[in-house]
Amino acid sequence: MNEALWALGRASGAVSLGLFTLSVVLGILVRSGRPLLVLPRFSLALVHRNIALLAVVFLGLHVGSLLLDPLAQLRALDVVVPFVGEFKPFWQGLGTVALDLAVAIAVTSLLRRRLGPRVFRAVHWASYALWPVAMAHAVGNGTDGTSGWFLGTALAAFGAVGAAVLWRMSAGFIETARSRQESRA
Amino acid sequence: MSRTNLHIDWTRCDGRGLCTELLPDLLVRDDWGYPLAADPSLDDKSNIPLGRDDEPAAAEAAALCPRLALAVRRRRP
Predict the structure, then answer these.
(1) CATH code of the domain in which B62 resides
(2) Which residues of B touch A40 (CB under 8 A)?
(3) Phi, psi dihedral angles at A143 (to 5 degrees)
(4) Distance between CA atoms of A118 and A12, rounded to whole angstroms?
(5) What is the pTM assigned to this prediction?
(6) B34 to chain A: closest CA residue
(7) Is A40's pLDDT higher than 70?
(8) How many domains are contained in chain B?
């Protein structure tokens, strides 16, 4: 049973991180206002939301299974308060930070019509912190975190998110950037 | 005709284009991406009258607008 919880904890963590990677890249694409191949803009927004929600579900599995697993020595306090863990407190604490951010982002996203665009956006920006913190947690704390296959996959994910962020900061990022710049000149 | 309008809050709208995809018969996009009423005779550009068949798509657009710039509102008599 403990072996199963341990395996579930590791696998769900990796799946959650993969889904968060996809969600960040999709979120940047949604922000650009561009459709993708056959997917219209509103579909992309829905895919972004659903992938992100799925990432949170797997994050719940990740934390829940390791809470029940005596090997992981995870206490309820570690789920909320970072850097006080028994095992690798720094790397585990990064996971706690990422979890807290994920909960804040998910709750403000689901309640965004109530909270208004200002609060939603301010909290949603934390996604850019969540991703690298979660990735560092995976590499530093994961049993396979420093194995070749994991580092290779992590590097590919880092490349994808990095490229998306660079694109996000470029001048032609917004779909209508050209016409808006021309009319300003 | 139903008794609702699609209200566009121009202080929030950023012309992301989701609403023009979901309501192609009611809205067109200008060169900068912002939605315009497809019917040019409309006086009020911020409140577009919805037909009964438009309401589900309008509600969807309001829910999905990335800038929360849309609302389906009851028309004033």
Answers:
(1) 3.30.70.20
(2) 21
(3) -60, -35
(4) 32
(5) 0.89
(6) A176
(7) yes
(8) 1
